[in-house]
Structure formats: C-alpha cells, structure tokens
Amino acid sequence: MKSYDQLFINGHWVVPVKGGTFTSIDPSNESVLASVAAATAEDIDLAVKAARHAFDDGPWPRMSGAERGVVLRRIATGIRDRLPELAEIEVRDNGKPLPEALWDLEDAAGCFEYYAGLAEQLDENVEKPVALPDDRFSSVARKEPVGVAGAIIPWNFPMLMAAWKVAPALAAGCTMVLKPSEFTPLTALELSDIALKADLPPGVLNVVTGLGKDAGAPLSEHPGIDKLAFTGSVPTGSRIMQAAARDIKNVSLELGGKSPFIVFDDSDVEAAVEWIMFGIFWNQGEVCSATSRVLVQRGLYERLLERLEQETRKITIGNGLEQGVLLGPLVSRSQYDKVLDAVAKGKAEGARLVTGGNRPANLDKGYFMEPVVFADVPEDSWIWREEIFGPVVCVRPFDDEADAVRSANDSRFGLAAAVMSRDIERCERVARVLRAGIVWINCSQPTFTEAPWGGYKQSGIGRELGEWGLNNYLETKQITRYNSDKPWGWYIK
Ligand code: NAD
User: Fold this and answer.
1) Homologous superfamily (CATH) for 7-255+459-478
2) 260-441, which class in CATH?
3) Is 195 exposed, middle or buried (0-12, 13-18, 19+ CB in 10 A)?
4) pLDDT tens digits along 332-388
5) How many angstroms does the Cα of residue 181 sit away from the middle of ligand 1?
6) What is the per-residue pLDDT across 205-247, written as a single tens digit (0 to 9) for each?
7) Closest by alpha carbon to 373, among 320, 304, 317?
C-alpha cells in the first residue's frame, strides 16, 4: 500500500502541521492497511483559508458552468480509468464485496458526469425573470454559489458519499474542504489526486483526513465556512447543527434511519425474500436507508420467515476481494462490537432469533458475523426502534393496511420505506402516507443520481442528488431595478 501521510491543501500534498498520523485497518484481517495524515485545527485553518482564497479571488466561481463541467467530466474519467484499483482500495479499507465497490465507483463517476450536465444547464438558467405586479420595476432571481463548503462524510460508501457532495458543490461554483471518515480515508485522498490531474484549480477542493473531534469539529466551527454538508449519525449531526448555529451557517444533514419494509400477503414470496435480503444485507447492512424493520402481513408471515431463514443461511461470508462473497466484514472493531451488542440486546428483549449472530467457523480473524434474522420483535424493543447499522433484520407481523402504516410511521427516523404488494393501487396509496423521504414500491434500495435523497424527522434536513443536490450549494439573489423616470414620490412629489 502506498503512503497516505499527507493532506491535500491548496493543490499541494502537505504534511500536517503537527505531523500526526493515525492508522486505517483492513477489517478482513485486522492488520494495518495504511498510515494516514491526522489533521488538527491548524491544518483545517490552512485548508479553509485556501478554499476561501480560491472562492474570493480564484477563477472557479467566475468560470461558466460549461467550463466547470469540463473539469467535472475529467474527474469522472479519472475515476473510471482507475476503477479496478480504486475498488480494491475501497474493499480493503471498508470491507465491502468487490462487485459492490465497483458499483459505488461507477456511481461516483456517474455523479460527476451528471453534475457536469447540470453545471452546463446552469449557464442558461442562472437568472430567471420574476413577474412583479408594479410595471415600474423589473426583477430577476439569480443563482450564485453559496461560498466555501465544509463536507464531513461517513465510512459506509466512502467514494460515493464524497461524490454526492463534491460533484454538486463544484458544479455550483463553490470551493470546499472535505473530511472523510477516519475509518475509510483512502479513496478521498485518491480523489484529490484525480482532481489535481483533472486541472481543478488550487484550493477548490481540499481534503483533510483526521479524527472527528480533532478535524471534523474544527471544520464545523470554522468561521470561514459558509455551508456545512454532513452525512453521518444523528448525535454528530446534532453537534454539527449546534456548531453551525453559532454563526448561522447554511447546513444540510443526511442522518440515520430505521426504515420499514411493508410486505402484503399477496406478494410473491421469492421476490419479497430477495428484496428484504438486499435491503438489509448489502454493504453488510451498513446502509443509512437499509430496510431494517420488516412488517409482514400475517397470512404470509411464517412462510416468508422460513424462506428468509433458508436463503440467509446460504449467504457467503468472507474477504470482499474473494469471488462469490456477498457479505464482507463490518468496517471496524467498534462497529462490530456495537452490532454484536445489539444482537445480545435483541435476545434479552424477547425477540426470536431465527438465524445468525455468530462468527463464521472458518474465519477466526476480521470483523465477520453471520447475518441475523430476528422474528416476533416487540414494537417497543430497542432493536426495533434504534439503528443497528449492521446485517440484522427485525421482522414482525401485521394484520391490515392501517396497522402496517401506523407501525411503519412509529419512528423518530424517516429516511426511507418500502412497500410490496401485487395490488399496485394499494402500494401507491401506502407510499403517499409513509412519513419518509424515499419510498420504494416492490423493491428496496435502488438509488438514482437524478432523484432526491434525504430524510424526514431525525433522518435529516435538506435533499442531496438531482437538482435538489445542486440547490444545496446555491444562493438565490434578487436583483430588482426601478425603470421609471418619475420620482418615487416619498418626498419629491
Ligand atoms: P459519525 O457521525 O460517527 O461520523 C461521520 C463523520 O463525522 C466522520 O467523518 C467523523 O469523523 C465525523 N465526526 C465525528 N465527530 C465529529 C464532531 N464532533 N464534529 C464534526 N465531525 C465529526 O457516523 P458514521 O459512524 O461514520 O456513519 C454512520 C452513520 O451515518 C449512520 O447513522 C448512518 O445512518 C449515517 N449515514 C446516513 C446517510 C444518509 O444519506 N442519510 C448515508 C450514510 C450514512
């Protein structure tokens, strides 16, 4: 593995001011994968000043959208050109199976291309006339970049989460400081290299690796930041919001979830089992939108559980680089312990453990666990109500549509939800009353760069992706002109 002991600030690779490093661990064997630069408040200050200078005096915000689009397309090509290598880095840093890492990287490249297109369109739509009821005046609404963005991201989709923030921010004309998770910092550093080779001007994208308290907190508190874009847990999101409140920074938050999946008893049982499993076991269940609470109508309940158990037991667990593996290790020791604790809690709370929860017999090192199915999970239990963020699905029966909707909506989260039935009208009806930012019908998880992404309730504020993602990084300015020769008439009559 190459060295990752420098930060990317103002278009240069620099050693952190205090010279610190931390280690990134390969979760499949618990060995040290890389020594990584640990930024502190001094480095954050340098990175924010570089981004500030690039915004206030540099070419990037003053370029046309089409010109910025050219650079974004070069970044997309830079990712595509290195797909296998970047995917391997992602697997070794995060643990996910290689085909899923390849999806993420393809999606990340696609995200840069998509926002290149929106940057181009921005040139035509940058100013829109506003109709006024007084013909002495004319007015336009103009879109301008919000300024310097600070982006803080989690470890579950390292490159993709970076793309979801960097691509729209750059398309809008913002400059930025990106802090990846300390558990998966490597591909964000590779992205810096790709941006450098794509001729992104210095200071437009700065990447600072480091711990949450040492690098994330000073970034969220820095007065030189205009906008904070955060993806991560609810408690950290709350801290970010408090930091932003001090000097009224614009803030968008993508937080956790405990998303329901309602399966009516007219559903095809095989399709239901596959979508349920994909909805909770892909990416080891370390997915904010994972459909971790499954509500099954009583008529199908036992049959579905039987098939879910059979298929779950067949899942191949192992190093994500090995062919055929569907479930890699969890990302870190702390996440592994947290998920194992949740399984113990579930058993103590009276849920029926259908399968899973042990370390696979053939894997004595690494953060591996058998995927878990809990049935008859009490509605007031911790495992039903709280985000576990691992391969643990909680299932319970329901009687009718009203009961299912009530139970699905009974959560402090509201990121995603899914509903399955052969009765499409029923699905459409239920989709409209679920209190969630994303609702899937007859599937779970498919995500498109074009469509809005974000949560209700404690799952977040604002939307990423699509045109909504671009608007996150744009201010709207009103320019109003007085066109009359006549005096205004306040004191000149
Ligand atoms: P986390 O909140 O622990 O960390 C996220 C990021 O915040 C990391 O980069 C971390 O270093 C940083 N951080 C930690 N403390 C900080 C502080 N005091 N100030 C500033 N930054 C700080 O979350 P995680 O464990 O990395 O990710 C898992 C969580 O992310 C889950 O709750 C999951 O649901 C959520 N998530 C949400 C989405 C979404 O789109 N809604 C997507 C992915 C993950």
Assistant:
1) Aldehyde Dehydrogenase; Chain A, domain 1 (3.40.605.10)
2) alpha beta
3) buried
4) 999 999 999 999 999 999 999 999 999 999 999 999 999 999 999 999 999 999 999
5) 8
6) 999 999 999 999 999 999 999 999 999 999 999 999 999 999 9
7) 304
List the domain boundaries for the chain.
7-255+459-478, 260-441
List the residue whose alpha carbon is closest to atom 43 of ligand 1: 288
- Write out pLDDT tens, residues 127-137: 999 999 999 99
218-237 exposure pattern, b = at least 16 Cβ within 10 A, e = fewer: bbbbbebbbbbbbbbbbebb
pLDDT for 451 beyond 90: yes
Same fold, 7-255+459-478 and 260-441: no
Q: Which of 350, 238, 378 is nearest to 386 (CA)?
A: 378
For residues 469 and 227, what is the distance between their CA atoms, to the nearest angstrom? 13
Are the CB atoms for 308 and 395 separated by under 8 Å? yes
Query: Which residue in 182, 254, 286, 370 is the catalytic one?
Result: 254
The pLDDT confidence band at residue 493, using thresholds 50, 70 and 90, is confident
Ligand 1: residue of 233, 252, 255, 258 to mutate (most ligand atoms within 8 A of CB) is 233
Amino acid in position 164: W
Which residue has the least CA distance to atom 16 on ligand 1? 212
Q: Which residues line ligand 1 (CB under 6 A)?
A: 152-156, 179, 181-182, 212-213, 216-217, 220, 231-233, 236, 239-240, 254-257, 288, 387, 389, 415, 455, 460
Pairing of strands 7-9, 12-14: antiparallel
Question: Residue 316, SS3?
Answer: coil
Measured between alpha carbons, how far apart are the two ends of the chain, in Å? Answer: 79
pLDDT confidence of residue 1 = 58
3-state secondary structure of 169: helix
Residues 469-484 as b or e (16 or more Cβ within 10 Å = b): bbbbbbeeeeeeeeee
Chain Cα centroid distance, residue 148: 20
| Residue 254 annotated among the catalytic residues of the structure | yes
pLDDT bracket for residue 3 (50, 70, 90):
confident
As a whole number, the mean pLDDT across the chain is 98
Q: How confident is the model at residue 2 (pLDDT cuts 50, 70, 90)?
A: low
Q: Which residue's alpha carbon is at the smallest distance from atom 22 of ligand 1?
A: 212
Model confidence pLDDT, tens digit, residues 112-123: 999 999 999 999
